[in-house]
């Protein structure tokens, strides 16, 4: 399953890495790719949208579908 979220607050490569690592730490996630310019993260895996949003928010960023 592939999911895309809008993520606000990423301003640099480190921000992208932080978001990717937060999501990839979830069980069931195969891959995550954040793009600060597009303000999005794409996720491959079997994880609920609620879990993804919570992981991004726990990392300090705003997320929504």
Automatic annotation (TrEMBL):
It holds the Pfam family HMA. It comes from the Archaea. GO terms for molecular function: metal ion binding. Residues 1-64 form the HMA domain. This is Heavy-metal-associated domain-containing protein. InterPro entries: HMA_dom, HMA_dom_sf. It comes from Haloarcula marismortui (strain ATCC 43049 / DSM 3752 / JCM 8966 / VKM B-1809) (Halobacterium marismortui). The lineage of its organism: Archaea, Methanobacteriati, Methanobacteriota, Stenosarchaea group, Halobacteria. Keywords: Plasmid.
